[in-house]
Write a structure and sequence with these properties.
This protein has 725 residues and is mainly β. The chain has a domain of 87 residues. The chain has 2 helices and 61 strands. A hairpin with a 5-residue loop joins strand 33 and strand 34. The longest helix is centred in the last third of the chain and has 10 residues. The chain starts with 20 loop residues before the first strand and ends in a 14-residue tail after the last helix. 47% of the residues are buried.
C-alpha cells in the first residue's frame, strides 16, 4: 500500500467502512499528494487489471508521472500489486489482439509527451518507451485523463481532451508513424465565456453515431452567470482521423454531473451509451461549488448521446466536503459493470477535500442493463414530511421530499405516521389525526381517500415501486425552464417519444414552464389545481414510439402558448371541470386526434388538419375560440361514448365556436350507423355544431314525428351515465 511522507506502518487504517473493494490506499488525503487517474479493464482471460497515478505538488507528477498497477484473478475480490511505472500518468488501459496497452503522458506539465506501453503477460511486465518506434511520441501532448480507447471502422481511437488519435487495428501501436491525430474544435465564446469550458473528453463510438469525443463542460473559473446553467457535456463528432466537428446548436447536451469528469462507454448488447458521473443532489445545489460536489455516483444511459436518463445512484456519502467518488472508469464483465473510482474516504487519517483521493476502489453494478433505483420512503412525523431516499453501496442518498406541493385537499401535511403503497405505485399517507392522502409514484397528489387498498407499513417503505417507465414529473414549486434537468424528478426532462411530462401538484401558484426549443415527447398530463402555462419560443411535437401519444387533463385549467404538432395518433382526454386551451397553432399532420371526456379542449390559434382526423366522443364539444383559423381539410369522426344514448331526437354538440370556422367544412364526416329507420341530420353542424338523430324521410310514424318536434332545440351537452333512466 502507498505511504505518504510522515506516515508510518504503525498508523492503522480502518477500511471496514469503505464501499467496494479497496485496491490501494494511503492513510491521509491532502491536496499536495493524492491518487488520480483510476482505470480498469477486463482481460480476455477474465482477470481485471486496474491502475492509478499520483497527483499534487508533492507527487513529482510535474517532472515524472508514476502509475501503479494491480491485478485480480477472482473478479475483483482480492488484488495483487503489479508494481509501478515511472514517466506514466493519465493512463488508459485497453486490450488489442493478445496484448494489454497503457497509453498516457510522461508528466503533468507543459512539454509533456504521449507514451504507450505494451504488456504480453497481463500486466506483469511492460515495454519501455525510448523512441518513436517504441512508444515515445515526439511533439504529441499527453491525453487529459483516462478514457477507454475504442475500436471503430478498423481503427483504434484514443481520446485527447477534445481531439483524438487513432491507428489501424493490427498495426504496431508502439510506432508513432501508425498514429494519426485530429484537430480540435475551437471554443467560440459559448455561454458568454471567452476561455475554453470543455475538458477531459471521453471517446465513444457506435454504428449510429460514429466516433465522438464527449468532454465535460465547466470553466476553470466560472463567471457568476454560468452557475445558473444546467450541467452540460458536449458531443464533438469525429468525421475522419484528422477532422472533428461541433455544432453548438445541438452539441451541448444536459448531463447530470456534466460539470465534472465522467466515464463513458458504448454497450453493444443493449445498444446504449453509459456514463458514470457525479450529479449534484438538490440539497447541495446552493452553498457548494458544483465541480467539487463528488459525493454521489450515478449510472446514466442514452440511446443517442443527446437524451440521458439517470438509471440509478450507486454511491453516496453525506460527508460532501471531505469524501467523494470520482473520475469513474469502467468496463463490462458479462451482465456486470466493473467500476474503478478515485475515492476520498475517511479511514482514520487526515482529510482535506473530497477532490483529494486516498483510495483506489473497485465497485460492481450487477445486471447493469436492467438496473433500477432501489428507493425507500420515510415518514418524518415531527417535521410534517415524507422523504425519499435511494439505497446505495454506501449511505442512503437523500432525494428530498416525496410529496410534491404544500397543501393537499386544502391543508398541509400534518404529522404523517403511516405509509402504504399499492401495486400500481400509488402511495397512501395516513396522518396522526386519521386523514389519508393518495399520491402517485412520482409524488404528485391525487386525492384524499377514506381508506387505503393495502395495509399500512408504518413510517418506512423499502424497495418502493418506481414510476412507470418514461413518466417524468415537474418538481419545482413555481415557474422554470423546461430545458433545466434540475426541474424534473430524477433529472428526467421529457424529451423523447417514450416520455410523458407530468405537470402535477408541485407548483404553489399559477406557473409558467418555458420551452425555447423544439421538444418531442410521448405525451403530457396535467393534474394540478394551479394553472400551468407552457410558453416560450419553442414548439411541441407529440409522438409515441409505441402506441398513441397522449394529452390528459385530470385537474385544473391550463394553457399552452406554443405550437403543437402530432407525430403519431394522439388520445386527448379531459375530465369534467378541467380544460386545456391551445393558444397557438395545432397541426394534426395527417394523424388522428381522439378527444374524449367531459372536460374542455379549445383551439384558439390556427387549427390545421392536413388530412388528419378529429375524433370526438360527444361528452364535450371541441371548441374554436375567437381568433382561431380552422383549415378543416380532414375528417370529423363522431364515436359516441358508451354512456350516451342514441335515440330519435337526440342532439349531440360536437363543436363550439362554429362562428369562427369562416365557412370551412370537413372533407368528410363519419357518424355511427343507425338502425330502426333513423338517420343523421347534419344540417346544423356548421351553424350550431350539433348533429341530430331523426327518422328517415317517409319512415317515421306520426308519433315519431311528434316526438321529434318535442325534441327540437334539446341538445345534450354533457350527458351523464344514467341520465336516460
Amino acid at each position: 500500500m502507498a505511504l505518504v511522507a510522515g506516515e508510518t506502518l504503525a498508523q492503522t487504517a480502518d477500511l471496514s467502512g469503505v464501499p467496494g473493494e479497496v485496491v490501494n490506499y494511503q492513510l491521509n488525503a491532502t491536496r499536495r499528494y493524492f491518487f488520480s487517474d483510476p482505470e480498469i479493464v477486463v482481460l480476455p482471460n477474465g482477470d481485471y487489471v486496474a491502475s492509478h497515478a499520483l497527483a499534487g505538488r508533492d507527487s513529482n507528477s510535474g517532472t515524472s508521472g508514476t502509475t501503479s498497477l494491480f491485478r485480480s484473478s477472482d473478479k475483483g475480490a482480492t488484488w495483487s500489486s503489479l508494481g509501478s511505472l515511472s514517466n506514466m500518468l493519465r493512463g488508459s488501459l485497453f486490450v488489442s489482439g493478445s496484448a494489454l496497452y497503457l497509453i498516457g503522458a510522461n508528466k503533468d506539465t507543459a512539454g509533456n509527451n504521449t507514451q504507450i506501453r505494451k504488456s504480453l503477460d497481463n500486466g506483469s511486465t511492460w515495454t519501455t518507451p525510448t523512441g518513436t518506434t517504441t512508444g515515445l511520441f515526439s511533439s504529441v501532448g499527453g491525453p487529459g485523463t483516462p478514457t477507454n480507447p475504442v475500436v471503430y471502422g478498423g481503427r483504434i481511437w484514443a481520446g485527447f481532451t477534445t481531439s483524438v488519435y487513432s491507428a489501424p487495428v493490427g498495426s504496431d501501436l508502439l510506432n508513432q508513424a501508425n498514429w494519426t491525430g485530429s484537430d480540435a474544435p475551437p471554443w467560440n465564446g459559448y455561454f458568454g465565456v471567452s476561455g475554453p469550458l470543455w475538458f477531459e473528453g471521453q471517446v465513444m463510438a457506435s454504428s449510429a453515431t460514429g466516433v465522438v469525443i464527449m468532454p465535460k463542460v465547466r470553466p476553470e473559473s466560472p463567471p457568476v452567470n454560468f452557475t445558473a446553467k444546467p450541467p452540460y457535456a458536449a458531443v464533438i463528432g469525429v468525421t475522419s482521423p484528422t477532422t472533428t466537428t461541433f455544432d453548438p446548436a445541438t452539441g451541448f447536451v444536459p448531463l447530470p454531473g456534466g460539470e465534472k469528469k465522467f466515464g463513458g462507454s458504448y454497450d453493444a448488447v443493449s445498444g446504449k451509451f453509459y456514463v458514470l458521473s457525479n450529479p449534484v443532489l438538490s440539497m447541495y445545489e446552493s452553498g457548494t461549488v458544483p465541480e467539487l460536489v463528488r459525493n454521489t455516483g450515478a449510472m446514466l444511459s442514452s440511446k443517442d448521446l443527446t437524451h440521458w436518463d439517470v438509471e440509478k445512484i450507486f454511491l453516496y456519502t453525506s460527508n460532501v466536503y471531505q469524501e467523494g467518488f470520482q473520475y469513474f472508469q469502467f468496463d463490462y464483465d458479462g451482465s456486470d459493470m466493473v467500476v474503478a473510482s478515485r475515492t476520498a474516504f475517511n479511514i482514520g487519517g487526515t482529510m482535506d477535500r473530497g477532490h483529494d483521493s486516498n483510495l483506489l476502489t473497485v465497485h460492481k453494478i450487477q445486471n447493469f442493463r436492467t438496473a433500477a433505483p432501489d428507493q425507500l420512503l420515510v415518514a418524518d412525523t415531527a417535521n410534517n414530511q415524507v422523504l425519499r431516499y435511494e439505497a446505495t453501496q454506501d449511505e442512503n442518498a437523500p432525494l428530498g421530499s416525496f410529496t410534491l406541493g404544500a397543501t393537499f385537499s386544502g391543508a398541509a401535511l400534518d404529522k404523517p405516521t403511516d405509509l402504504a403503497q399499492a401495486a400500481n405505485g400509488d402511495v397512501y399517507v395516513r396522518e396522526q389525526a386519521g386523514r389519508i392522502l393518495r399520491f402517485d409514484a412520482l409524488g404528485n397528489f391525487i386525492s384524499s381517500v377514506s381508506s387505503a387498498p393495502v395495509a399500512f407499513q408504518g413510517t418506512q417503505l423499502t424497495s418502493i415501486v418506481q414510476p412507470a417507465s418514461g413518466e417524468r414529473a415537474w418538481t419545482q414549486p413555481g415557474s422554470g425552464n423546461w430545458n433545466d434537468i434540475r426541474n424534473w424528478y430524477y433529472w428526467g426532462r421529457p424529451d423523447t417519444n417514450e416520455e410523458i411530462a407530468n405537470f402535477g401538484s408541485a407548483v404553489l401558484t399559477s406557473s409558467t414552464v418555458t420551452i425555447d426549443e423544439a421538444v418531442t415527447m410521448k405525451g403530457m398530463r396535467f393534474q394540478s389545481d394551479q394553472q400551468y402555462t407552457l410558453s416560450g419560443s419553442g414548439a411541441i411535437t407529440i409522438a409515441s414510439g409505441t402506441g398513441s401519444g397522449s394529452i390528459a387533463v385530470q385537474r385544473g385549467a391550463h394553457q399552452t402558448l406554443l405550437s403543437l404538432m402530432l407525430g403519431t395518433d394522439t388520445a386527448a382526454s379531459a375530465i369534467a371541470g378541467t380544460s386545456l386551451a391551445f393558444k397557438q397553432a395545432i397541426d394534426l399532420n395527417g394523424k388522428e386526434l381522439r378527444v374524449t371526456g367531459a372536460g374542455l379542449f379549445s383551439a384558439e390559434g390556427r387549427f390545421d388538419m392536413n388530412g388528419g382526423t378529429l375524433l370526438l366522443d360527444g361528452l364535450s364539444p371541441f371548441t374554436f375560440g375567437a381568433g382561431s383559423t380552422a383549415i378543416l381539410d380532414g375528417v370529423l369522426h363522431f364515436d359516441p361514448d358508451p354512456i350516451l344514448t342514441i335515440a330519435a331526437g337526440r342532439s349531440f354538440d360536437l363543436l363550439d365556436g362554429t362562428a369562427y370556422l369562416s365557412g370551412q367544412q370537413f372533407q368528410s364526416v363519419i357518424l355511427p350507423p343507425l338502425s330502426g329507420g333513423m338517420t343523421w341530420d347534419t344540417t346544423s353542424l356548421y351553424s350550431t355544431g350539433a348533429v341530430i338523430v331523426v327518422p328517415e324521410p317517409g319512415g317515421a310514424s306520426l308519433v315519431g314525428a311528434l316526438g321529434l318536434m318535442l325534441y327540437v332545440g334539446h341538445r345534450v351537452r354533457r350527458e351523464r351515465s344514467g341520465a336516460d333512466g
